Amino acid sequence: MAKQSIFGSISTLMKANINAMLDQAEDPQKMLDQLVRDYTNNIADAEAAIAETIGNLRLLERDHQEDLQSASDWGNKALAASRKADEFRAAGDPVDADKFDNLAKVALQRQIAAENSAKAAAPQIASQTEVVNKLKDGLSGMKQKLEQLKAKSAELVARQKTAEAQTKVVDAVKSIDVLDPTSELGRFEEKVRRQEAIAQGKTELAASSLDAQFESLDDLGELTEVEARLAALKSGGAPKPAIEG
């Protein structure tokens, strides 16, 4: 039952929806690493259980071999005692003959007991051998699954890192999109345009002020000409026209 529970937990672990677990995990890589560790620990538990099962099988096999050897030894002893009884009987010594026949019977009883013990152990040994072979195959399959899990884990982690890198690149590109008026670059461009407009306004204002100054100079020139002609009139001279034909 202990061995079945070990394989049961491992089977449940391997049938788990890894994708769903990844979706719920805050850090998928840590979750995958923990999954590999759990599966590795389960394999270690399975190896210990299988080793114990194999050890019990070897004890059964050793006891079975000892029973077979004991049966053979008691058979040889029974045969030797029977022959000795025949010798005494042939020599006319029925007392010693009966004595050795009785010893032969005891040896035969021991032989039968050893044979029965060996026969009883044979099915159990066959059954345990089949179990051990299946456990070994299962363990081999588990180790293959572990390698697949490690490879899949490495693949998923690599894919996650690639996806994160792609997301960062896309976000970075979006943040400097020259056509996006809401981007940092767009906002800076708008600021520059405002500054340019202010500078243009100041330039136009300065030009307007300069024109006014020149206009005042023209007015001053006209006043000076008027004063000159008035002075000429007062001195008795005729004023000179500004333009002679």
TrEMBL record:
Say which species the protein is native to.
Answer: Microbacterium schleiferi
Entry keywords, A to Z: Coiled coil
Task: Please state what the protein is called.
Answer: PspA/IM30 family protein
Q: Which family does it belong to?
A: Belongs to the PspA/Vipp/IM30 family.
Record bears the keyword Acetylation: no
Query: What domain of life does the native source organism fall in?
Result: Bacteria
Q: Do you know which PANTHER family this protein is assigned to? A: MEMBRANE-ASSOCIATED PROTEIN VIPP1, CHLOROPLASTIC, PHAGE SHOCK PROTEIN A
Q: Which residues form a coiled coil?
A: 36-63, 132-166
